[in-house]
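We keep the chain:
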Amino acid sequence: MISQNIRLYIYYTVLFILSLGAVYAFDHITRKHPADYLYTEKCLLCFISSFFNVFVLRYHYTHAPHPKFCMLLQRRIAIYVHISSGVFEFITCWLTFCTGNTYIARAAALVAILGHVPSAYYQTSIVFGAKALIVAAYLFAISLHLFCALNLYVQPDSVYWLLNMFLVHNVYVWCRILYAFFGFIGLFKDTRYTITSWTAALILFPAVLGVSANVLFLGYVAGSVFLYLFIVQPDEQQRDLFLCERPRDLLVNTEIYEHWIKDKSRMAKISKKAETNDQENAKEIFDLLDADKSGYIDGEEVSQLLEEWKVADAFIKRFSRWSKKGNLAFDDFYKHIWRLGEKSKDHFEGNQIRENKEKARFVFDYLDQDHSGYIDVIELQKLLIQWGLSDNEVDAYLATDDDKRFSFDEFYHNVKPIWDFAYENMRVANSGIITEILHPHSN
């Protein structure tokens, strides 16, 4: 019996081979184009892309990187290679366009082939959005980038291939600008990441491949979805996670969670009085679930509950390992189960905390809900799962922690990507209350 992980690995391998096979279609289309094909339109798009680049680079310079890119050494290497090669490619493409120097053109192509393209392939599996659409779209774009770079390396005096490579290289820039634009005007709130990625692709691909580009692109994505269903054979939850928009790996289906809470509240006859707080409500429901009044809930029942709430599979596996003894006391139920469904609350940033240690302390105090002076490792695991790290990468990142909890000093010195990004995504009111995740993708 082939395991689900192996099936998924086979799917990504087949999809990668399919993306390379698309090169044949790219060659068949582009060989019919004259050297000046859409020259004016391409130049205009290149100038617009360059203008947008200024804002995107400024954004990345002034904002903390997403933790999924910098928590593990291999991820940090990949993202640094990706950024440095991307900047070098951008500069050398412009130098080539202005000077016509074939050596610079070959250098631009070589950096794309050896740096930007491989590092992009490596990051594809951790993208956000509806993976059924985004993974295929990324692979299509990366393969087209590789195809253009190879042609520019062979024909370094070709302005046609120089413009093509530059345009595909800037698909991400258009994604970022469109994401900000749609957010500003309030469009596509639930599917913004996927819509912006596809819109960027549908704008730039026809400039490179002509009018048939979008048909080829849509056919490639449709084929990738069928391959996933055929090879992976997902269950209902896995299929939903693959097909639905995922700005983050949401730990809980909030609609199911809230319906369950309301139903249990009615059964427990929880008072609606103002003096009844969240922890007291949780205790009432815990007592309702604790049928034998032992002070514990059976671990298997909690695991079943997590499945009913459509909790992320990675967290269910972790909970199963964490609760091997089988029973859960109220404190653990409230801290690790009940609060899975809580939402971030809205707030406005007043006095900005500037010192790193103050930022770390602010995030630490928020996570240390019981004011014990320690953060349980499971709290960090929940954040990492939400932020897109795979199960094995969560284990690898936290492998050096022996006592399964973090003091403030450990938190400050050992997990900077966590508190840096968490603080960046919080707005702090004068009252010090945390209110909103600002940009959940920040990809």
The two ends are 36 Å apart (CA to CA). The beta strands are 297-298, 327-328, 375-376, 405-406. Residues 236 and 242 are 10 Å apart (CA to CA).
